[in-house]
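ugh ok fine here u go
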Amino acid sequence: MKEAIIYTLGSVIIISLISFVGVLALAINAKKLNKIILYLVSFAAGALLGDVFIHLIPELIETNSFTLQTSFLALGGIVIFFTLEKIIHWQHCHMPQTKKHIHPFAVNNLIGDGVHNFLDGLIIGASYLVNIPLGIATTVAVIFHEIPQEVGDFGVLLHGGFSKKKALLFNFFSALAAIVGGIFAVIATGMTPKIAEYVIPLAIGGFIYIAGSDLIPELHKDFETKKSIIQIIAFIAGIAVMASLLLLEKKSQTNNSISQSFPIFKSSHNFK
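structure:
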């Protein structure tokens, strides 16, 4: 439990710090940045789907936790993320863009992104509470999804009337919700030990929605053959990374099995 808490806090802090990646939007040429983001989006889509089908679903099946309730919760995850997107896009403002006027859509984006980050933290925390390798796989998937998203959020805030300094600052405050989500997962586990059985299916639905509704459609907007091939390679690479993390999981399970079978290996550190 203690190890899971340490990993959770470390991971959600990293997720929060990713909000500063928006600085890239200022340092890199816009055309080059858009090209890089599309490849990151491809990789992120593969990583999210890879996490769902290689880690999250198999974990529920192995623990006999995949039931009809799981399907409804996964659908609930899709509904939650769909609703979040709708909330972000509900308000529109036709007033001229100025530094003195903050557009409502920019504020909505911050609120929606804050809720999204809270859910990311909750999902990461719940994954670590199942086992460390699953938590690492989920964290990696979230990180690669967050990088292009945070660059996009930074651009939305600038367009909405925020100064560059305020856009970075408020985007970071929004990202801190991931830490709150991670801590909440740990605390909730003390009250409801089976919280992972509810949160993991929500993550499955959310990740499928993000990859299928947000990321992949963006890739279909570019029809250039060379770019499309690179995007496909990046997509497969995202899946491959999730598959490679299985080795970490198997190694962890093997070490635990050895420690349980031969306690002397577990206590050998005492002689150092």
